[in-house]
């Protein structure tokens, strides 16, 4: 019989090690550290190369090499076993989370099946200059087209859109059980409603946004939503859009009052580039004509 290699002799030990790990997705660097830490215990010589070890993992233990290619960067990881799509995507970038229409659907606030996965990467918050808003600036911004991220990738038959959001640490981000029973990072219900109001284009459209507010009635905490909104400290008065959505969705006046405590100094817009509009005097807000 041909002599077994050191890797073959240690095959079951190595398999047991990976089966005992919570993680199923590994970077090259992480596998390199695992090899270095366990080389002696597994009886592998110092001459055992990282390349040979990786080949062994793929050919003998069923590891897969998977890549998600965005225009900005390619992400390549080794996966062990059946890894849910959301778990893999969230492993690509530290502290990333699912947001907008993806979060909306996972919170059961949308019947529309999202055609994209919205993967959000928090950015370091920049200090906002103490310059007051100008009505002309608001008008020009919202009468124009909305900026949409082009940083997308095809992965396992889905389009993944990579977003960058300014935030405050993990504000409004929770760990929740995903569709595959694994824990995933996702915006909570209150942060989700804020995000979809800020960017309806990432949320199935403004009608889907209003439908989500209706579904969230009796579940969402309006006081928590207001606190999150204050902490996010947007330059634009999105509280007017949120107050309007709450009112349109049939929330009690006692619930919408918390949004009325925010200052209302400008006319604002529910969405970008609306052609025909109506106007809410209460919220000083333009919204699409015939909106239901």
Strand order of the largest sheet: 4-5-7-6
Unreliable spans:
none
Find the structural class using helix and strand composition. Answer: alpha+beta
Helix percent band: 25-40%
Question: What best-fitting shape do the alpha-carbon axes yield?
Answer: elongated
Number of DSSP strand runs = 12
How many structural domains are formed by the residues? 2
Q: Name the beta content range.
A: 15-25%
Radius of gyration: 24 Å
SSE topology string: HHEHHEEHEHEHEEEEHHHHHEEE
Average pLDDT confidence is 93
Reported for the largest beta sheet, the result is:
4 strands, mixed
Instruction: Give the CA-CA distance, first to last residue.
Output: 76 Å
Tally of helical segments: 12
Explain briefly what this protein structure is.
By secondary structure, the chain is of the alpha+beta class.
Description:
The chain is of the alpha+beta class and 292 residues long. It folds into two domains: 6-79, Arc Repressor Mutant, subunit A; 85-288, no CATH class. Helix content is 38%, strand content 20%. The protein contains twelve helices and twelve strands. The protein has helices at 6-9, 11-19, 28-38, 50-61, 85-92, 100-106, 135-143, 189-198, 206-215, 222-232, 238-248, 253-260; strands at residues 25-26, 64-69, 74-79, 97-98, 116-123, 152-155, 158-166, 173-177, 183-187, 268-269, 277-280, 285-288. The strands form four sheets. A four-stranded mixed β-sheet has the order 4-5-7-6. Strand 8 (173-177) and strand 9 form a beta hairpin. The longest helix has 12 residues, at 50-61. It is elongated and about 80 Å long. The mean pLDDT is 93.
């Amino acid at each position: 019989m041909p002599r077994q290699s050191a890797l073959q002799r240690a095959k079951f030990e190595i398999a047991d090690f990976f089966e005992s790990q919570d993680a199923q997705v590994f970077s090259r660097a992480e596998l390199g550290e695992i090899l270095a830490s366990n080389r002696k215990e597994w009886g592998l010589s110092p001459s055992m190369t990282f390349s040979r070890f990786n080949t062994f993992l793929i050919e003998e233990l069923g590891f897969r090499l998977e890549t998600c290619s965005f225009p900005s960067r390619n992400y390549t990881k080794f996966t062990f076993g059946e890894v849910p799509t959301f778990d893999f995507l969230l492993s690509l970038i530290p502290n990333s989370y699912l947001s907008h229409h993806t979060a909306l659907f996972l919170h059961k606030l949308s019947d529309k099946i999202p055609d994209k996965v919205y993967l959000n990467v928090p950015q370091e918050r920049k200090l906002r200059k103490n310059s007051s808003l100008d009505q002309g600036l608001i008008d020009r911004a919202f009468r124009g087209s909305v900026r949409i991220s082009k940083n997308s990738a095809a992965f396992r038959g889905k389009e993944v859109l990579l977003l960058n959001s300014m935030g405050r640490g993990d504000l409004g981000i929770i760990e929740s059980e995903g569709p595959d029973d694994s824990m995933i990072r996702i915006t909570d219900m209150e942060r989700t409603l804020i995000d979809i109001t800020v960017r309806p284009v990432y949320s199935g459209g403004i009608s889907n946004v209003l439908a989500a507010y209706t579904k969230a009635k009796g579940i969402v905490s309006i006081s928590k939503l207001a606190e999150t909104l204050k902490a996010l400290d947007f330059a634009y008065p999105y509280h007017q859009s949120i107050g309007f959505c709450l009112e349109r969705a049939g929330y009690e006046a006692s619930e919408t009052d918390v949004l009325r405590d925010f200052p209302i100094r400008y006319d604002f817009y529910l969405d970008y580039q609306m052609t025909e509009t109506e106007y809410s005097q209460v919220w000083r807000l333009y919204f699409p004509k015939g909106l239901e």
